[in-house]
């Protein structure tokens, strides 16, 4: 499976804001973005330019891709599916990305980042409705139960991660049982509840050209 393998901190610097791709490290003084918030490259500090409308739209699309860890080809498929669904295309796009299994594992607090969640899913640590799923892009549906598989429940990494989930901080479309390392995807999220700093209308404009 193709995936991005270079330094992820460069992605935050390129977009000019923290994308929280390394979990708790992004909140510490080790965060590279705090030390180098300028664009990567030899002339990153001195680069000053005004972006065109196309450039603004492109950057918004790239930022969303990088937040969810989706490659360009995958993203185009998500957009195509979102455009064919009923409702607002931008909202549909975000809902499809939010329903990815790796994102659900991250949102439930069973992993510290989406990258970590993707690795854990690929290593067959999770079940959906009792069946092992090792596809990070698997689409979780309302009512599905996501749980750490029985053989993996003794691993401290999962217990340590869910302990950090504070009461009342879980997103409203999830239900979490910390003792059983189990969560439920209650419903598709509404746009206003999805905590991502994205203007999805710019992405729709980009693909509408």
What does this structure look like?
The chain has 209 residues and is of the alpha+beta class. It folds into two domains: 93 residues, Ribosomal protein S4/S9, N-terminal domain (Ribosomal Protein S4 Delta 41, Chain A, domain 1, Orthogonal Bundle); 86 residues, RNA-binding S4 domain (Structural Genomics Hypothetical 15.5 Kd Protein In mrcA-pckA Intergenic Region, Chain A, Roll). The protein has nine helices and five strands, in the order H-H-H-H-H-H-H-E-E-E-H-E-E-H. Strands 2-1-3-5-4 form a five-stranded antiparallel β-sheet, covered by helices on one side. The longest helix has 16 residues. The model has no long low-confidence stretch (mean pLDDT 85).
Order of helices and strands: HHHHHHHEEEHEEH
Shape: globular
The profile of the biggest β sheet is:
5 strands, antiparallel
Estimated radius of gyration: 18 Å
Q: Taking all residues together, what is the mean pLDDT? A: 85
CATH fold group of the largest domain: Ribosomal Protein S4 Delta 41, Chain A, domain 1
SS-based class:
alpha+beta
CATH architecture name of the largest domain: Orthogonal Bundle
Total helical elements: 9
* Portion of residues within helices: 25-40%
Strand content: 5-15%
User: How are the strands of the biggest sheet laid out side by side?
Assistant: 2-1-3-5-4
Distance between the termini: 30 Å
CATH level 1 class label of the largest domain: Mainly Alpha
Query: What is the count of distinct domains?
Result: 2
Number of beta-strand segments: 5
Low-confidence stretches: none
Name the quaternary structure. Answer: single chain
The fourth-level CATH homologous superfamily of the largest domain is Ribosomal protein S4/S9, N-terminal domain
């Amino acid at each position: 499976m193709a995936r991005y393998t270079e330094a992820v901190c460069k992605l935050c610097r390129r977009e000019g804001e923290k994308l929280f791709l390394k979990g708790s490290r992004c909140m510490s003084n080790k965060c590279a973005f705090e030390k180098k918030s300028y664009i990567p490259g030899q002339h990153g500090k001195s680069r000053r330019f005004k972006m065109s409308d196309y450039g603004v739209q492109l950057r918004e699309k790239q930022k969303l891709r990088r937040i969810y860890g989706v490659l360009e080809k995958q993203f185009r498929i998500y957009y195509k599916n979102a455009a064919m669904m009923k409702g607002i295309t931008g909202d549909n796009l975000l809902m499809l990305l939010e329903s990815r299994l790796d994102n659900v594992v991250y949102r439930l607090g069973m992993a510290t980042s989406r990258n970590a969640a993707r690795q854990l899913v690929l290593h067959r640590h999770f079940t959906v409705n009792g069946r092992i799923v090792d596809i990070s892009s698997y689409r979780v549906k309302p009512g599905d139960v996501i749980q750490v598989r029985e053989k993996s429940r003794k691993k401290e990494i999962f217990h340590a991660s869910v302990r950090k989930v504070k009461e009342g901080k879980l997103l409203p479309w999830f239900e979490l049982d910390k003792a059983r390392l189990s969560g439920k995807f209650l419903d598709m999220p509404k746009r206003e509840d999805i905590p991502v700093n994205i203007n999805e209308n710019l992405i729709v404009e980009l693909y509408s050209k």
